[in-house]
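Predict structure. Input: NadR/Ttd14 AAA domain-containing protein, 185 residues.
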Amino acid sequence: MRIVVSGTHASGKSTLVSDFAARHPEFVVLPDPFELVDEAWDFPSAELFATQLRLSAARLHPDETAGHLLSERGPIDFLAYLLALDEFNSAPGSRELFARSIEITQGAMRHVDLLVVLPLDRDAEIFVPRDEHLPLRELMNDVLLDLVDDDQIVGANTNVVEIVGNRNQRVAALEELITPAHFRF
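Output follows.
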């Protein structure tokens, strides 16, 4: 099974991935692509998000990472960031960049069985510092929720599930989703 955990920054992705991985060592865990970017980025940019989109898409291919995997973020996250950043800024971004990013995302999502979306949830008890670009966080969340409803982006064979609640409720919900009785293969 190939699982991607998606959500805006400070939505609980790292915690869910860590909690699930501790209970399921059979899954290869792919960290947030931001950890793989060599350069220091002080501020969100289209270049940063496009780089992470490409990295996250490449590692989802079965030739790159075989077997069961749990990925913190996927290309759909960074497509959402690109679109949110474009909406946030007054100057429109590159149409070519958006078209290529959509194409890459669509191709990578073919290799995902389950897309777990963590929408912003006040009950999740997540502390978010003010320097976390809060307006972009909110906007990305809204864009992501729109994207995950688009079968042309996600693909018809990927199960999409939103998970909310506290830490224990989230990991329990994900564990329930990986049982054969609840997952269509």
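The mean pLDDT is 90.
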